[in-house]
Specification:
The chain has nine helices and seven strands, in the order E-H-E-H-E-H-E-H-E-H-H-E-H-H-E-H. It is an alpha/beta fold and about 240 residues long. It has one domain: Rossmann fold, CATH 3.40.50.
């Protein structure tokens, strides 16, 4: 795994109870960052906290439904008042919705997927921009998906909202071309996660990389000395075939 020293850095991760968010939260803690871990499932957060402590790290757990009326905004206020800054934002939470013909997608599904995949990132930007700018080297990474570009059939809500998030994040990044805040997007590709298993139930998960294999790429993007900004970085495209 990539070695990076994040002692004294503060990182906030959404979707931290499982999958990519959980793996990155643990790696951030191992690297020395204090991790603010958010997710809906308290049990999953507590298990993460146990693993972080075993690894010698520290965390603050924040059970949070990203669709709640003002939870994200309250979290931004707490971060600003308690710590005065935020060094790293890793937005890993996502909602797949239902894989079904676009004409059959229910309004409730649209509302949920749009809320988690597009509106929540917009609210995170609004709530956390000031703390990120208070850091000497703020870093924001949003986990997106190649579905935003492939736009395969039956993936309408997920593809549309991830494409929208990409546009939002890259537009926001351009607003910060001339300051120390770096903003990037990651396409992780196929990974051994519950979301992937839901989308491809017949696939052998043992043929897919574990989420923690994404860490070297993410570490480079959140490194205070890193210079990558405004990019969409495709993990699968960077892998060298065996």
């Amino acid at each position: 795994m990539t070695s990076i020293d994040l002692k004294g850095r503060l990182a906030l991760i959404t979707g931290a109870s499982r999958g990519i968010g959980r793996a990155m939260a643990l790696e951030l803690a191992k690297a020395g960052a204090h991790v603010i871990a958010t997710a809906r499932t308290t049990g999953g957060l507590e298990e993460l906290d146990d693993d972080i402590r075993k690894a010698g790290g520290s965390s603050t757990l924040v059970p949070l439904d990203l669709q709640s009326e003002d939870g994200i905004e309250q979290l931004g206020t707490i971060v600003a008042e308690r710590w005065g800054k935020l060094d790293i934002l890793l937005a890993a939470a996502g909602a797949l919705g239902e894989l079904t013909p676009a004409a059959q997608v229910k309004s409730k599904t649209w509302q949920s997927v749009v809320s988690v995949n597009l509106i929540a990132p917009a609210r995170l930007i609004r709530a956390l921009e000031a703390p990120l700018l208070a850091s000497d080297a703020g870093r924001a990474v949003f986990i997106s998906s190649g579905a935003a570009r492939s736009r395969r059939p039956f993936w309408g809500p997920y593809a549309a909202t991830k494409a929208g998030m990409d546009a939002l994040v890259q537009s926001w990044a351009k607003e910060h071309d001339n300051n120390p805040l770096n903003v990037n997007i990651v396409y992780p590709g196929a990974m051994r996660t519950k979301m992937r298993a839901k989308a491809f139930p017949g696939e052998d998960p043992m043929t897919l990389p574990e989420p923690d294999e994404l860490w070297p790429l993410v570490a480079g993007l959140i490194d205070p000395a890193g210079e990558t900004h405004g990019e969409i970085v495709d993990f699968a495209a960077q892998q060298v075939p065996a």
